[in-house]
Amino acid sequence: MTKLGIAINLDRCVGCHTCANACKMSNNVPMGMLWNRILTEGVDVMDGAQGTYPNLSRTYLPVQCQHCENPACMKVCPTGATYKDDKGRVEINYDKCIGCRMCMAACPYNARVFNWSEPRREPDFNYGDARVPVRKKGVAEKCTLCKERTDAGELPMCVRVCPARARTFGDLDDPESEISRIVREQSATQLLEDKGTRPQLYYFG
Amino acid sequence: MELTRRRFLAGALGTGAVLGVGGASGMFSSSGWLAPADADEPAGEHIACTYHQSHCGGMCPLRCTVRDGRLVMVEPNHCAEDRYETICLKGISEVQHIYGDHRVQSPLKRTGERGANEFEVVSWDEALDDIVARIQEIQAADGKDAVMVTASAEANFPFLAALLGAQTGGNTGIDVGYGNGLDPAIGWGAGYASATGEARDWVNSNMVLTMGSNFCESSLPNARLFFEAKEAGTKMVTVDPHFSTTAGKSTQWVPIEPGTDAALLLGMSSVILDEKLYDEAFVREHTSFPFLVDATTGLLVRDHAEDPEAEEPETGETNPFFVWDQATNAPVPYTDAAANPALEGTFEHDGRTLTTVWSMLLESQKPHTAAWAAEVTGIPEDTIVQLAREYAAGPSCLAIGWGGNDKMSNADVAGHAAAVLVALTGNIGKIGAHVGVFVGGSYNGHTASFGSWELPEELAAGEDEMAAYDMRTKESKVRAWICCGDFVAQHFANMAVTEEWVKTLDLVVSIDPYFTEGAKWADYVLPATTRFENDAEVGNVACGYSQIILQEKIIDPLFEAKTDFWIQKEVAKRLGLESALPESSVELVETMLSTSEEEYVSKLTIDQIVENNGVWPVEGYEEPRREYTDFVFDTTSGRMDVYYDNLAPYGQALPVWEECSEIYADNPLRAQYPLQLSNVRTRFHIHNQFNDALWIQQFGEPFIEVNPTEATERGLENGDAVRVFNDRGSYKCRVHANEAIRPGSARMWEGATADFLEEGNMQNVTNDVLNERGAELLCGPVIPFSDTLVQIEKA
Q: A4-204 has which CATH code?
């Protein structure tokens, strides 16, 4: 079997949002939405710091769909629009999505966004990868692990562009893969492990 | 792991400022242009390559996808090695930004008072005819140099000043603070303190000591080099008043009182002298420390007096410096290989008292103890001692920046103190040991040199009578000013003074793809193309991070924008000088390649580079760049010349601590204006560029940051609008309370202009008082933008 995932080195993440913008571009994500966001952990301002000056620390936390093995979103989807594909990715069949947003309420990672109205794009044309389907008003969307790119053997765009090379993409089912080695050797962790969702996004460093 | 689920995006997206440019707002809508493509537009996709902005030093090689004539994707290009395949959020934001509503769409002519921001659309012919006619009128009356052409880093106007015989603005006063003090000792850096080696070599250092640089933001595309070094075991230490992104990623953060870098460096040198941690062989053989100084005049002893009329200064060979030969007990030329020079000592000779630079250093360093430095910098003495020991052990890099103490009035003293520290320890010219600013691959990597298009001899830029910043307060000949880029709001501090001067000019022209703050002060605003638009297949060739990069045509010019080349050509036509310029930008690029002094560059053709994805590796790129590995420096003596006798009248022949001009601790002005305001680089902008990019704005627009204690004291909540003010002026923006900010200070992204703030320009408050020593410095005085005190209050 194939189980695709990403491991993110938090020591290397400089919180630059390049992954977020590259994802927006490649996947034709409308204004007001991102599939991939960088949080500054534990504070309420971007680039803030935890502690009291000068005893400070800072962690940037990139958050996107965690492509869970046990996806909370899929369980609540009444139409089967959200599904786990043969490469272990969580995907959405936009034609089946009825816009009930049960998935958004269920996702503990706040990874999904919703087209409340007609998508507004700046610039006002479809940019990005021509292979990516255009979504309509009334459907949920999120990181697809760049399905169209990875099916063609390319890296997900967030991995390709990361200036600090903090991201490693690969097959978690292949023990020889770089991502499997990282998960084994770097005590990589998952977000909200207690939720039992078993994410395929790993964080280390 | 804890996951904080803030509604980050929802908040950020809700606070977007309303765009719009006063009277001209109707012309800034992109809606008409972004309607469906013309029916005759060829369908389908193609790929073309260019490079991104130069002023971050990135010049990322970009691979662009065009669909139906529109830019739809920007990706890193394919290069010789992964490390050169760079991009950042700004490059990607261009997919929106080049179509954004701050693009100037047509030539505009001022209709109201200058600065009132009222314009009407005119044709290119009307604009250029009138501009050239008015220039000719001014030049007929007051001479060719009554016109000034200034061009910013992104603009490409190599011919314009020469065509007009115009002045070009002289010294810039920006990014030359540290370099003024450091570069004369080495002969490298051109006043910008460019590093003597490449950041790629940090993996071979034991320590990288960063001061006043936020590498992980301001050299974002190269951030991987920082981590390669850190993971290889290099101790990454960052000295910064604020817990910057780079500080947060470092092995050690050393918080420092703003404007006191020099004190830390001087204190470290004292530890190195006291503990004899210096590299004595390097000091004796490769520095001017053994040279003799006349104790009365403070001048270095030379063979003979220099001819003040001489065009070129004499070399150390033709007019040697002297050392005290211990064998003969007499001064001898330092070039005398048989001599046994004394490092320390004061000697009577021929009725003169001579002393070595080393002995003078021991004297000048006496007050600069580690304990004293601890007092001034706020850094514990133990830490200063630890830093000195680790730096001296080497190999170490001293990584300085343009965004910290560089923007203070005492920056040259810090640069000079850095030169002394390097000279003492020999941390230069070795694997893993370099000094300078390491940011920006195009500044930091290997370079290829290009030839140029030769103009007829009679076409040359005029002589600069003074720096443009001085024209604000001194009489100058200039009556017409052509700004290729935003100079009014970007290049000078204390904007009210700049505005008063601009009002007195007879003609002001802004040429820029975007409607900048400076454009509001122009009589004509001309729309230039971005790096993505071209009327020819190739627009330019440049050198990025160890790669030759071609600017291919990605899309046709948008709106009525024209290339910089076309604009120069049209001006030349009107001056009857068209034949002096190349036929096209393609001919220009062909000439730049074929006339290169480097053989492999001269043999390269445009087609070869195009076939190689528009990039070509610079020869020798495989090894990190390392200068002065033979320890022969580009100075008069060929050694590190640490003694600046031209500064003897100012007591700065060797670096001596000097307070900042405004932010010094005991300034009574602090009672009224207690916060020092740092203008810093950010990953989100390059100076004023990308303020208007919607894909950047989704993360935030310019705000001022203060420590939460300062916010609480003033009754301020996160996101409140505040008024930032001092005696020079004020502006309004949002405030963030951030623990990363040093109490007593405030921090703000530089280049914040009125269209992106609640009200006014950040430059309204910045300090424009120049150091009186400035005229003696390599690049003239630095503008002390961050040597600024302000107060903030709820707006």
A: 3.30.70.20
